[in-house]
């Protein structure tokens, strides 16, 4: 049971990390696009 909790916690952290990475990637891409348009 404890090992299941640990794996679930790790998975949740991985998901949060991926979402954060995607958000920062979107931020960078929009910045580049705006700079390119200017």
**What's the story with the biggest beta sheet?**
none
Total DSSP helices: 1
Beta content? under 5%
The computed structural class is mainly alpha
Keywords:
rod-shaped
Overview of the molecule:
By secondary structure, the chain is an all-alpha fold. Helices cover 95% and strands 0% of the residues. It starts with a helix and ends with a helix. The mean pLDDT is 84.
Q: Would you kindly provide a brief summary of this structure?
A:
Helices cover 95% and strands 0% of the residues. The chain has one helix at 2-37.
Write the layout of secondary structure elements.
Elements lengths: L1 H36 L1
């Amino acid at each position: 049971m404890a090992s299941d909790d640990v794996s679930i916690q790790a998975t949740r952290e991985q998901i949060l990390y991926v979402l954060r990475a995607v958000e920062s990637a979107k931020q960078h891409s929009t910045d580049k696009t705006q700079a390119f348009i200017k």
